Amino acid sequence: MFKVTVLYPRAAEDDFNLAYYLDVHTPMVKELLGPWGVLKVDVEVGISGPAPGSEPAYALICGIHFSDLQSLQSGLDAEGPTLIADIPNFTSVTPIMQFSRVE
Q1: Of 51, 53, 61, 103, which is most buried, counting CB atoms within 10 Å of its CB?
Q2: Structure pTM?
Q3: Whose CA is closest to 63, among 81, 83, 40, 85?
């Protein structure tokens, strides 16, 4: 299995719109990448850092899973620009992306 992980760093000046992300952006990801073989999308909402009461490093982490690397790359090549264009609707930070092989 292959995964693209999208990390949204937490920034004090950012007002991450979680409702928009969950209600609009995540369904958009599933709809647009579905034809490219997306297996699942998981969303992790940061609640704290390792020390009690500390802020999380990331406001949100999203994992988008595919059975093969070619499907992941083709899907993002085709639909990535639309998904990236939606980012300003829920955050002002630039996300970090990583492709991984899941063992």
Answers
A1: 61
A2: 0.93
A3: 40
